[in-house]
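Hi support team,

I submitted a single chain yesterday and got back a structure, but I'm not sure I'm reading the C-alpha cell output correctly. Could someone confirm the output below corresponds to the sequence I sent? I've pasted both exactly as they appear in my results page.

Thanks,
R.
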Amino acid sequence: MAQGKAVVTMVTDVDVQARHAYVGVNNRAAGQAAAFLIGRHLRDRPSPAVAVVVATFSYTCHEDREIGFRSLLRQRFPNVNLVEVIKGADSGPATYEATQRFLKTHGDLAGIYNVAGGNEGLAAALREGGLTGKTFFVTHEVNRITEPLLRSEVIDFVLTQDMNLLLRTSVEQLSAVCEARRARSQAILPLLTCSKYSL
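Hi R., thanks for writing in. Yes, this is the structure output for that exact sequence:
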C-alpha cells in the first residue's frame, strides 16, 4: 500500500491499515454456525466432550472462528464441555499426531470443530480411534480432501464459500482501488453449509 499498490485480502483478514479491502465470510459467524450445528446435535447429552482444532493464530480467520465457536457454545449450549484446543499446525501429519495424543488422554469425543486444515490427519486419527461416525465433525472448505470425507460421512458438515464469487468480488475490489473508485472496506460473502447431500 505504501508503494501505491492495491491490496485485497481473501479468506483471512489483516490489519485494516495494511489493505484496502477484505473479501470473505464473517469468520466469527462461521465459528458460531459450527457451534450451533454441534450444540444442537449434542443438546440432549449430559456434558459431551468437544474439542476444537486450530493451526496458528497468525491467521485472524482461525482466531475469529474459535472465538465465535466458544462464545456461542457458552451462551446457547452450556451442557457441552469444550475440553481442549488441539494444535494441528495446518498439516495432515501434525493434526494426526496432535489428535492421537489428545485421544489417548481423553478417549471419547462427542464433537470436533476444525477451524484449519489437516482434515486428512484428523480423519485418520478418528478412524483409528474407532470414532468415525460417532464424533460429530465440522470443518471448513470443500476441497479434494474434505469432499470425499464428507461423501463418506466422516465429516458431517463443511462450512464454505462460493470460490467463484470470492474471486470475482476480489477482482472487483482491486479494480475499484486501481481506478480510484471507492472500494468497500469489507465485502462479506454468504456462508454456505454443506452436507453430503448438498454437494
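A quick pointer for reading it: Residues 8-25+162-193 form one domain. Let us know if anything else looks off.

Best,
Support desk
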